[in-house]
């Protein structure tokens, strides 16, 4: 019985060999000069996935219909899976003996590096889906660019996550169109949701010294380069959804990436971290 | 002291007896998630790749692989997680596809994985997905998607409009 079906396909074997070799020699993982910025940037990647994943998981058991409940729980699972990879690499780069779990469960709010957009409360299903769509459209472009990262470790995580995020984007854009171009009630709710979260989207493209350092090292793209692609996807989907792009500034709220958060993050952490804080080292 | 080590082919055969915990009609090797078996001196190394990043079955699969190999007498064992190249349903064997169908799960239609762009647009323009999934029960192609997700991350929910049965579709990934 051929137990490895693709073993005869040369490019897969080559890819696997190249990947194994690359894993052993990522030039950035032990780069002392880059360490602070690389670690911080990896925390941004991991924290966005962790906090959005946690938010979406709050719908588990509360979805309006069973299929949506399951879909949201599955999306949350994917995001928590990405968190393990990003924070796992962050811990490795930091080299201080911390694990991905330590970073998730034992950091305080001001050490979290996620966007404010992802920590906002879920609101109704319209806010949840609109926020997810606007983030998915960004996440998709970012991961696509990261598959060409100069860091093989970053590139392989991005390639894995991209397959799942492509699915997230298809699902959320489909739902934005169906609900935006749906009933009077669903249209009004989707427009209200868009107006509510719009001012938080600009932070995704706001660059600081950390972004510049990883971009210069070829690890990540310049975020401003992703903006036109995001605008095109968002413009197309909103138009099809018969929704109006708000006129207010899209970068009204920022600071999450630097650790300045809304009060909402503290409540998420209180729930998420309680067990490890109250019973250090507990496992099951 | 130096007992003869089992061949890697023998190990592959043993792993072929380890069922997927969620879909027990197929084995972990038929799913294509065991990527490599090799000996490093006296240590057996098995590289396993996750299907979906957050799939909760991943740790159960590791445990089942370890249990099986220990039962076969392997004492010095290391499991390696391999991310690259990322798992694809192209690696699900033909035999496994027939077993999935017989079990009531429509097997993946190759070449239809999400790309976040064209497939999404096509789905939107046609109102629904343009993918035709045959009912694993009656064979009808008159089916509809109920949800992009199902009982596990790797499946979507469909319904047959002829025999009216709901069924799972193992998504192309």
Automatic annotation (TrEMBL), chain A:
UniProt keyword annotation of Oxidoreductase present: yes
Gene it is expressed from: paaI
UniProt-listed InterPro entries: Aromatic_CoA_ox/epox (IPR052703), Ferritin-like (IPR012347), Ferritin-like_SF (IPR009078), PaaA_PaaC (IPR007814), PaaC (IPR011882)
Protein name in UniProt: Phenylacetate-CoA oxygenase subunit PaaC
Keyword DNA-binding tagged: no
Record keywords: Oxidoreductase
EC number: 1.14.13.149
Primary enzyme class: oxidoreductase
A single GO molecular function term of this UniProt record: phenylacetyl-CoA 1,2-epoxidase activity
A Gene Ontology BP annotation from the UniProt entry: phenylacetate catabolic process
One GO location term (cellular component): cytosol
PANTHER family (UniProt xref): 1,2-PHENYLACETYL-COA EPOXIDASE, SUBUNIT C, PHENYLACETIC ACID DEGRADATION PROTEIN PAA
From TrEMBL, chain B:
Cited Pfam families: FeS_assembly_P, Zn_ribbon_PaaD
Annotated Gene3D superfamilies: Fe-S cluster assembly (FSCA) (3.30.300.130)
The PaaD zinc beta ribbon domain, residue ranges: 128-171
Domain of life of the source: Bacteria
Residues making up the signal peptide according to the UniProt record: none
Record-annotated MIP18 family-like domain positions: 9-70
Protein name, per record: Phenylacetate-CoA oxygenase subunit PaaJ
Organism: Alloyangia mangrovi
Source lineage: Bacteria, Pseudomonadati, Pseudomonadota, Alphaproteobacteria, Rhodobacterales
Gene, per the UniProt record: paaJ
């Amino acid at each position: 019985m051929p137990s490895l079906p693709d073993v005869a396909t040369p490019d897969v074997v080559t890819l696997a060999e190249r990947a194994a070799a690359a894993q052993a020699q990522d030039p950035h993982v032990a780069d002392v000069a880059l360490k602070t910025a690389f670690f911080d940037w990896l925390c941004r990647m991991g924290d966005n996935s962790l906090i959005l994943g946690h938010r979406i998981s709050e719908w588990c058991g509360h979805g309006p219909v069973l299929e949506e409940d399951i879909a949201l729980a599955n999306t949350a699972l994917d995001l928590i899976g990405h968190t393990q990879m990003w924070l796992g690499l962050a811990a490795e780069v930091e080299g201080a003996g911390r694990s991905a779990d330590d970073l998730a469960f034992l950091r305080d709010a001001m050490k979290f590096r996620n966007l404010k957009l992802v920590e906002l409360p879920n609101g109704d299903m319209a806010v949840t889906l609109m926020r997810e769509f606007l983030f998915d459209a960004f996440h998709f472009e970012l991961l696509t660019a990261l598959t060409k990262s100069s860091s093989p470790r970053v590139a392989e995580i991005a390639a894995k996550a991209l397959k799942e995020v492509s699915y997230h984007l298809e699902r959320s854009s489909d739902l934005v169109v169906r609900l935006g171009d749906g009933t009077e009630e669903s249209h009004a709710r989707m427009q209200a949701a868009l107006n509510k979260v719009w001012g938080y989207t600009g932070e995704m493209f706001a660059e600081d010294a950390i972004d510049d350092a990883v971009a210069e090292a070829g690890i990540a793209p310049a975020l401003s380069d992703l903006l036109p692609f995001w605008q095109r996807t968002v413009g197309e989907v909103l138009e099809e959804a018969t929704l109006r792009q708000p006129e207010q500034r899209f970068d009204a709220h920022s600071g999450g990436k630097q650790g300045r958060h809304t009060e909402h993050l503290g409540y998420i952490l209180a729930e998420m971290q309680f067990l490890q804080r109250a019973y250090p080292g507990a496992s099951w | 002291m130096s007992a003869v080590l089992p061949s890697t082919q023998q190990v592959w055969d043993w792993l072929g007896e380890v069922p997927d915990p969620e879909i027990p009609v197929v084995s972990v090797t038929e799913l294509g998630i065991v990527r490599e078996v090799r000996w490093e001196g006296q240590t057996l190394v098995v590289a396993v790749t996750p299907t979906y990043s957050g799939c909760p079955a991943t740790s159960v699969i590791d445990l089942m692989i370890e249990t099986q190999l220990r039962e076969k007498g392997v004492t010095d064992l290391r499991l390696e997680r391999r991310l690259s190249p990322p798992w694809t349903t192209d690696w699900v064997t033909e035999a496994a596809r027939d077993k999935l169908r017989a079990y009531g799960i429509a097997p993946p239609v190759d070449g239809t994985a999400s790309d976040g762009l064209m497939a999404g647009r096509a789905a939107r323009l046609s109102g629904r997905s343009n993918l035709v999934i045959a009912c694993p029960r009656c064979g009808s192609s008159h089916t509809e998607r109920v949800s992009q997700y199902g009982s596990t991350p790797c499946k979507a929910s469909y319904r047959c409009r002829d025999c009216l049965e709901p069924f799972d579709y193992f998504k192309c990934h």
